[in-house]
Design goal:
The complex is a heterodimer.
Chain A (H helix, E strand, L loop, with lengths): L9 H23 L1 H22 L1 E2 L7 E2 L3 H7 L2 H31 L7 H9 L6 H11 L6 H8 L11 H13 L2 H13 L3 H9 L4 H30 L2 H7 L14 H10 L4 H25 L2 H13 L2
Antiparallel strand pairs in A: 1-2
Helix pairs in contact in A: 2-14, 4-8, 4-9, 4-11, 4-13, 5-9, 6-12, 9-11, 11-14, 13-14
Chain B lengths: L1 H17 L5 H35 L3 H4 L14 H9 L5 H4 L6 H31 L6 H12 L3 H15 L7 H4 L7 H12 L4 H8 L4 H12 L1 H17 L2 H6 L8 H6 L4 E4 L2 E4 L1 H21 L1 H11 L4
Helix pairs in contact in B: 2-16, 4-16, 6-10, 6-13, 7-10, 13-17
Classes of the chains: A mainly alpha, B mainly alpha.
Chain lengths: 321, 320
């Protein structure tokens, strides 16, 4: 382009060269990052716009979409199945995630002590977190089996009559929470990293002031860990709202795909509305509602605390081990 | 080895020397140790029980597993369950599974093929994009990086339905692996973020001397920065592989032919049902055996690359 500029005045020539080089630099920058931009247009920007439009229509995936304004969103609010799925998801998330985070912190503190074979113990606690989610669900489904499940058997040993875990919504929610606790190792690892990033000077200073073990925990560990805990709780809730496979398999009927509304969660219901009942416009509206809830929770994290960002970026850039 | 032995001896001597004096302090210390180890051991037993139950259930016979009262150990170890999962059938819904050979070798092969392509796409495209954000200087670089980060906030569900419509109706990708593979070649925000952060820590002098030697951006990327980023690439590879192995949702939408399914969807299709002369009965022991088989590769991977795993968990924050 500017390369073949006529050789007149020198400063002008140099300016063209600089401009050319700058432009090439710009081109290269965009070129190297182009995979993302192409993907962004194809898999994010366009589908998002299409999704906005679809959420305003009635669309079965076969005939042309019929525009119906905010009708889907209005219907969502008093659709008992949606409300039920949403309520189940919230109950599960609000019970399970803080419990997990707290237990995760306790286990992390336990395995942050000086003990022999720490890495082995940590692996044992962490291992359930890497089980594929479908296997996880199948195992728990079997353990929760009413007649032959080991959980009811153990309850029987202390004379508690068998519980219909998978057939009664309120027990099903308890079962979700119980099953979720098995992956406490994931929270443990994050908390361990958090614990190790607490400067030891703080503990030393507190000890000089004569603080006991419990006081140390209350005055140093908990305040220093609270941003990590808070971040994990909110992000855990966001994750729980989007999880699918575990709930799908656990609530799946026996035999052929017989879907039960019992204990259904938001994502499973969304899948069913879109891909089994072919109400794609309605499903798109459900997805947008989920998006705004997640957005609100994420903004809450950013608003309330900026501390964990510092900790995280420091860790990534090699500040930690 | 010998040093630990010596240390042990020295420790033992020290203990022997002081063992007569049971001061209050020492009692408290020993009690603390005992309490610590008891808690750790009891906790790990509790955490391991579901594992043990999984393995024991996978080794029981069909009649025994459905007998009450239940026993922890199988009366007779039925190793045949594993052969049955891997070779003889019972692998899919009754209509397709019974009578024909097991689909599990296919599931493993399919998942491995998909994983290879997804890994190539993920590692290459994300590294390239991260390189441009970390090592090249161009206008709007930082505002555009913010756009990358912003897409992390966007849950996939919002784009799910239009994406499905395009893949299935425009590209006709039903019963292909393209929906699982192609998006991997276009980068994903968390991996770009992780790699960019890592590449920022590589000294800038490397770029300067490379450029003085006349290296192009591409050579700098391919020969220097990419190899030096291998720790971050390793973490991303592990997580990506995990994601492919676990992905049930994409094949659920796009794959209907059993012989094209991956391990996750294959496992979810173990409807724990067998049939004999039209009578249906649950085959829970086979579902458990299949669960063990599907978990094993991830467990091996975990022990081989523990460090990357832990790093990845901590960086990505939530997911276990």
């Amino acid at each position: 382009m500017g390369v073949s500029a006529p050789s007149v005045a020198k400063p002008y020539d140099r300016m063209v060269g600089v401009r050319h080089r700058e432009r090439m630099r710009q081109v290269r920058g965009l070129l190297f990052s182009s995979p993302f931009w192409l993907g962004f247009l194809a898999f994010t920007a366009f589908p998002m716009l299409a999704s906005v439009y679809l959420s305003l229509t009635h669309y079965s995936g076969l005939e042309a979409p019929v525009f119906r304004g905010l009708g889907n969103y209005v219907d969502l609010l008093d659709d008992p199945a949606v409300v039920r799925a949403f309520r189940n998801t919230v109950i599960y998330a609000v019970l399970s995630i803080p419990l997990n985070a707290l237990l995760g912190l306790l286990v992390a503190i336990l395995l942050n002590q000086k003990a022999r074979g720490l890495s082995v113990w940590r692996s044992i606690y962490y291992l359930p977190a890497i089980v594929p989610s479908v296997a996880y669900a199948l195992l728990w489904k079997w353990m929760l089996n009413k007649e032959y499940g080991v959980i009811n058997f153990m309850l029987g040993l202390v004379k508690i009559p068998p519980v219909n875990w998978l057939g009664d919504e309120k027990y099903l929610l308890i079962a979700y929470v119980m099953a979720g606790l098995w992956t406490v190792g994931g929270a443990m690892i994050i908390n361990l990293a958090g614990l190790q990033s607490i400067p030891t000077e703080l503990y030393d200073a507190a000890k000089v002031d004569g603080a006991g073990k419990f006081a140390l925990f209350k005055a140093v560990t908990l305040p220093m860990m609270s941003p990590v805990l808070f971040y994990n709780v909110i992000m855990g809730i966001v994750g729980a709202m989007q999880s699918f496979a575990f709930f799908f398999v656990l609530t799946q009927g026996w035999g052929n795909v017989s879907y039960s509304e019992l204990g259904t969660v938001y994502m499973v219901h969304l899948w069913r509305v879109g891909f089994q009942l072919f109400r794609m416009g309605y499903a798109a509206a459900m997805a947008w509602v989920l998006f705004f809830i997640i957005l609100a929770l994420t903004l809450l994290v950013f608003r309330i605390s900026g501390r964990w960002v510092y900790y995280e970026s420091e860790w990534i850039t090699g500040g930690g081990r | 080895m010998s040093t630990t032995l010596e240390q042990g001896r020295a420790g033992a001597r020290a203990v022997a020397a002081t063992s007569q004096v049971w001061t209050m302090d020492r009692v408290r210390k020993v009690a603390g140790r005992v309490a610590l180890y008891t808690t750790i051991v009891l906790g790990s037993i509790a955490v391991s029980l579901p594992w043990a139950w999984l393995i024991m259930s996978s080794l029981k016979g069909n009649i025994e597993i459905h007998t009450f009262p239940i026993y922890f150990l199988p009366q007779k170890f039925v190793w045949r369950n594993y052969l049955e999962v891997l070779y003889y059938g019972w692998s899919g819904p009754v209509s397709e599974g019974s009578g024909m050979g097991s689909l599990w070798p296919r599931y493993f092969l399919n998942t491995s093929i998909i994983a290879v392509f997804v890994l190539i796409g993920t590692l290459f495209s994300n590294a390239l994009v991260a390189f441009s954000f970390a090592r090249l200087r161009w206008r709007w670089r930082n505002p555009l990086f913010f756009v990358v980060l912003a897409t992390m906030m966007l849950p996939g569900q919002v784009t799910m339905i239009p994406t499905y419509l395009v893949f299935s109706q425009v590209f006709k990708w039903i019963n292909t692996w393209y929906p699982q593979i192609v998006p991997a070649f276009f980068g994903s925000a968390w991996a770009i973020f992780l790699l960019r952060q890592f590449m920022m820590t590589i000294p800038i002098e490397i770029d300067e001397s490379a450029r003085l030697d006349g290296c192009s951006d591409w050579t700098l990327f391919w020969r220097m920065i990419l190899p030096m980023s291998s720790p971050a690439l390793g973490a991303i590879a592990i997580f990506t592989f995990n994601g492919v192995w676990n992905d049930m949702f994409t094949p659920l939408l796009y794959v209907r032919k059993p012989e094209l399914m991956n391990v996750a969807i294959g496992l979810s299709n173990m409807r724990t049902m067998g049939s004999l002369f039209g009578l249906r009965f649950p085959r829970d022991e086979l579902a458990m055996a299949a669960s063990v088989v599907v978990s094993i590769p991830l467990i091996i991977l975990f022990f081989l690359f523990q460090r990357y795993y832990i790093q990845g968990v901590v960086i990505t924050g939530v997911k276990g």
